[in-house]
Automatic annotation (TrEMBL):
Pfam families: Lectin_C (PF00059). This is CD209 antigen-like protein D. PANTHER family: MANNOSE, PHOSPHOLIPASE, LECTIN RECEPTOR RELATED. InterPro entries: C-type_lectin-like, C-type_lectin-like/link_sf, C-type_lectin/snaclec_domain, CTDL_fold. Residues 57-174 form the C-type lectin domain. It comes from Biomphalaria pfeifferi.
Length: 176
């Protein structure tokens, strides 16, 4: 009889994806595809980040490279420069500063494209950029062609800015 009850419980828990233990329903934690993929890459330096429903699998390249070389290095790692296009994602990487992210206007001045091919939106500029950036200018009165975006600490203003692509920075790759 005990065995029969046990078998019924096991069957129910498998059918509905939950376990019954001491009368308490325990919801099983499902591992998403990106999390599972990221865990397998942990030994190569990737780390899984999650806050609510926002999930990221990131690799922080500590060796400093210009934007193009950073992009190439991410491609070598079978990923791309990170697309940090929401406040939620930004908050998750807020402490990782002085790094390239996947956003530039190299192809057409003033038209920024994320590494996933999407366009930078005005709301993203408002939410994610240092006030006044992207401005294509190094100094207020001197413009020097800034086409690549990095996350840089600006004291209290810890946001994205556009800077010359030739600068050497650490970089953030993203596995999708
Ligand atoms: Ca520019
Ligand atoms: Ca700028």
């Amino acid at each position: 009889m005990r065995i029969q009850i046990l078998l019924v419980l096991v069957f129910c828990s498998r059918s509905f994806g939950r376990q019954v233990e001491n009368g308490t329903r325990i919801v099983k934690r499902t591992v998403s595809v990106i999390e599972a993929k990221c865990r397998t890459l942990k030994s190569t330096g990737f780390q899984f980040y999650q806050r609510g429903n926002t999930k990221l699998c990131l690799y922080l390249g500590q060796d400093k490279k210009n934007y193009n070389d950073a992009k190439i290095q991410c491609t070598r790692l079978n990923c791309r420069l990170a697309v940090i296009n929401t406040i939620e994602k930004f908050n998750m990487i807020a402490y990782i500063v002085d790094v390239w992210i996947g956003l530039d206007d190299i192809a057409t001045e003033g038209t920024f494209l994320w590494a996933d091919g999407s366009y930078l939106q005005q709301q993203q500029i408002n939410d994610l950029f240092y006030p006044g950036d992207p401005n294509n200018c190094c100094e207020i009165r001197q413009c020097c062609k800034e086409d690549c975006v990095c996350h840089r600490a600006h004291g209290a203003f810890d946001k994205f800015i556009d800077i010359p692509c030739s600068y050497e920075k650490s970089y953030l790759c993203e596995k999708t």
